Amino acid sequence: MIVASASGAAPCPLVRLRGAVYVARAMTADVVSVSTTTARQIASRRPIALWLFAVCALLVAMIVLGGLTRLTGSGLSITEWKPIHGALPPLSDSEWNQEFDAYKAIPQYQRVNAGMTLDEFKDIFWWEWAHRNLGRFIGFAFLVPFLAFAFLRRIEPALYPRLILLFVLGGLQGVLGWFMVMSGLQDRVEVSQYRLVAHLGLAVAIYAAMLWTALPLWRGEWPGKSKAHPMLRWAVAIVALVYVQMLLGGFVAGLHAGLIYNTWPLMDGQFVPGGLFAHTPLWLAPFEDVTTAQFDHRLVAYFVAGAVAALWFVEQRHARTAELTLTSNLLFAAVAVQIVLGVWTLLEAAPVWLSALHQLGAVALLSAALVHAFALRSPAMP
């Protein structure tokens, strides 16, 4: 605002300067209050994204290794939770015998692996030890760079809550993992399928959240553009459907439901097999009955494939950027490959290596769905 002098003459330079300052302050007040991001922090977005992408890769390895631990029956081979000392494996015959004696005291050894030799025990021990130590390594791989970026003041204020939440969830995942193992140390010969799926579900959720955080940073945005494509809701629904399908796959693995009905597309000669939902109580059938668990996993797979195919077909009829074309095609290819892997795994009665590959395919499909949803949420300029 410019104020004229009492004589009606032009305002003096000092008054004009003050008026310009007031206008500038009014225009920038909201921006300053929303963000105090510096140029160095903006320049650090891509390095931070690279760090998060690297941790995402470790999380993928962790998810697959966790599946291998389950498939090889190794998850109960270490019967204690020693967050620090447990990082070191047994270093002497005496220590190996102590670990083996502890394993002999649980039902899995007594009812399933009685008579196992020490060398056979070592085979399953190393799987679980590698799984736990990869978890420790991921914690350091996240925490150390985070502290370095924070010390150098390269993290913009709006990003701190997301990163801190991811670290806290990672710690909770370790606690949940031990809670899962505890379920198989007393009365059961394996871990509870409910706790197994909870452990898997949290791991996948952490991976998805970290990937979703890294994507806008890689593009140089935070938290990302608000402009969205009309098909975004459909794409987000596919992400949710893939996540649910992964949880159902966890129940199939937890119940060993992949070892029966090894035919496709029919189950025991029928699309809807006999004995479906025969479990009592009925509402627990998807989680405790092997027939229902496998049928649900098959059925949701059809829904995922149909939803992806429909989205891809609709998007072909609309003008799109090169990025949307690429991510849409990748999503379509990912679901096609995953269907092949799923059917192959079923027909081969779920061998360990193929089951692990199928799980990796599920993570790849989820990643493709997330990347495509992000491309629809924050489209790049054509």
Can you walk through the features of this model?
There is one protein chain. The chain is mostly helical and 382 residues long. The protein is built from 13 helices and no strands. The N terminus is likely disordered. It has 3 domains: 34 residues; 182 residues, no CATH class; 158 residues, no CATH class. Helix 3 packs antiparallel against helix 6.
Biggest beta sheet attributes = none
Query: In angstroms, what separates the terminal alpha carbons?
Result: 41 Å
Structural class computed from helices and strand pairing: mainly alpha
Q: How does the overall form come out from the CA principal axes?
A: flat
Give the percentage of residues in beta strands: under 5%
Helical residue percent? 55-70%
Mean pLDDT: 89
Unreliably modeled segments: 1-35
Summarize the helix and strand pattern as letters.
HHHHHHHHHHHHH
Rg over alpha carbons: 27 Å
Tally of distinct domains: 3
The overall strand count is 0
Number of helices: 13
